[in-house]
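Job type: complex structure
Entries:
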Amino acid sequence: MKIRILLLTLICAMATVPGVRAAEGKAKGGDKEEETELGNQMDKMGGAFRKLKRQVADAAKNEDSLKLVATIKAASVESAKLTPAWKPEQKDKYQAKMKEFNGSVAKLEAALKAGKNDEAAKICEELGAAQKEGHKEFKKPDSKKK
Ligand code: HEM
């Protein structure tokens, strides 16, 4: 008799656990990636960089472009202090790459201030390539956001 009760309890427990897990998943946003401090900084860069790419060659927009660069600069400086969620063990390598990225952002700022838009556009392309590389190396591949 005792064994039967025990078995019944076990079966009930097994039936509820997956349901609880599913509910937990939903509370965290289902299949959406967990929000991270680094992700937030990256999002700031993302918005500014998208707009910057469209207008970087246009000297008439340099004042606004410099504001976008300032946003990217601030977010990338903060990003360089953080740890990638997917590859925490590669923190040092990631931070070194991010600092290299900061150096390119500083060059971009200098080019825009000097009115060298062709050069600025070239550096922007380099930043795009660094983004691609950085994401390939340190960002979870099946993450929906680019
Ligand atoms: C123009 C340059 C870049 C842009 C616009 C950019 C943009 C983004 C965006 C929009 C996300 C998704 C954020 C979210 O989950 O909400 C992201 C994530 C990420 N990016 Fe970038 N990124 C850039 C450069 C880089 C570089 C150079 C690296 C590495 C050296 C890097 C490493 C990462 C990592 C590791 C994540 C995942 C977030 C986490 O681990 O918490 N990104 N990025």
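Summary: The helical segments are 2-27, 37-55, 62-79, 91-113, 117-138. The chain has a mean pLDDT of 85.
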